[in-house]
Amino acid sequence: MKAGIVSALALLASVTVLAQDTRVTLRAGRLIDGAGGMSENVRLTLDGARIASVDRLRGEVTYDLSEFTVMPGLIDTHVHLTAHFDADGHTHDDPDETAEQAMLFAVENAYQTLMAGFTTVQSLGSVRDQYLREVIARGTLPGPRILTSLGAVTVDTGAPDEIRGYVRQLAEDGADVVKIFASASIRDGGAKVMSDEQLQAACSEATRVGLRTVAHAYGTESVTAVIEAGCGGIEHGTRFSDGVIELMAERGTYLDPHVGLVWANYQEHKDSFLGTGNYTEAGFARMQDARVTGYDTFRRTVQHGGVKLIFGSDAVAGAHGRNAEELIARVNDGRQPPMDAIISATSRAAESLGMADQIGTLAPGFEADLVAVAGNPLTDIDAMKAIRFVMKGGVVYRPVAP
Ligand SMILES: [Zn+2]
């Protein structure tokens, strides 16, 4: 009888131990939590797709990342997942390309982006993004969590009423955000093209139907008009006055500037872009100017300290999977402090997407989206390229190579 009780207790104890062991645990040599905190020798315990606890307990773990720096899965708020070079090496202009072919390029881009440590992206955007968003969300195909604008409001969308109708249509079609082309392409000079009334229509209607807004805008005039129209975020920025910096800080406008990767990528792949649309020699010269003024504007913004800088790369063909190069450029050439740069690509990016309580921070209750890099990005930001491990929603998509 006594032996029976003992063995029953032993069985109970082993079941308890087993139950504990089924929880996935990770050990981080260094942990950057995404919200400004840094600690060492940390253990994370997961509960399915979420983080259950963060502590310093020793012992065996499922994934030993003690050699690495662990951070939240990175967030890129501006990519173009469908943008690609055709089979002949040129930017997409092949009229014979089928929808199936185009989709496979997008799948490839999504995979490269996830392997580079980006577990969430905002695509600004193609109508095809919605299929990719859904298939990745089903959990079989590896790719980042996708938010998309599906399309964009442009000067040609029409009068304010037509713009409001289009915004309602986007909401109905399942857009996560409204993208607005307030300015012309930088290759066409980047001047303000939408009227104040058009901008107000787009941003007020989006707010009314519960969608965020981001506006492609260059220059003091465009950026000021976008902020005055009540839009939530500025894409590119590139050049504006100190007065605009004050205005952004005052209104809490998110700024997603692109200072490094986008220009470097166009330059590296110049032959692949040249000859399509506004990718002309004059367009390339304008991009070179934008690169110089962009750094100057970015440094003034960083120095001010009050603007909500978020991370986006504007990844187009040739740049997918290289997203972190933009972060490196912002620190090395734009003089943004490394911790701020990391926050801009984690918790603050999450906040800008309305997901501040779900992703971008390594703390109990958040999604188990995390990456490990070799080295310490706080002292050498180039470490952001040395991705060694990627987990999204508790699933390992990139294990540490043996
Ligand atoms: Zn873009």
The helix/strand series, from N terminus to C terminus, equals HEEEEEHEHEHEHEHEHEHHHEHHHEEE
- Bound chemical compounds: zinc ion
Q: Regions with pLDDT < 50 over 5+ consecutive residues?
A: 11-20
CATH class of the largest domain: Alpha Beta
The overall pLDDT, averaged over residues, is 93
CATH architecture of the largest domain: Alpha-Beta Barrel
Please identify which CATH superfamily of the largest domain we are dealing with.
Metal-dependent hydrolases
Q: How many angstroms separate the termini? A: 51 Å
Strand element count: 15
Report the biggest beta sheet as strand number plus sense, adding barrel if it closes: 7 strands, mixed
Give the strand line-up of the largest sheet: 3-2-1-4-13-14-15
Radius of gyration: 23 Å
In terms of structural class, how would the helical and strand content be classed?
alpha/beta
SS strand fraction: 15-25%
Shape: globular
CATH topology of the largest domain: TIM Barrel
Give the number of helices. Answer: 13
The proportion of residues forming helix, as a percent range, comes to 25-40%
The total number of structural domains is 2
Description:
- 50% of the residues are buried.
- Helix content is 38%, strand content 22%.
- The longest helix is centred in the last third of the chain and has 24 residues.
- With 402 residues, the chain is α/β, with parallel strands linked by helices.
- It has 2 domains: 87 residues, Roll (Urease, subunit C, domain 1), CATH 2.30.40.10; 279 residues, TIM Barrel.
- The protein is globular.
- The strands form 3 sheets. Strands 3-2-1-4-13-14-15 form a 7-stranded mixed β-sheet, with no helix packed on it. Strands 8-9-10-11-12 form a 5-stranded parallel β-sheet.
- It starts with a helix and ends with a strand.
- It contains 13 helices and 15 strands.
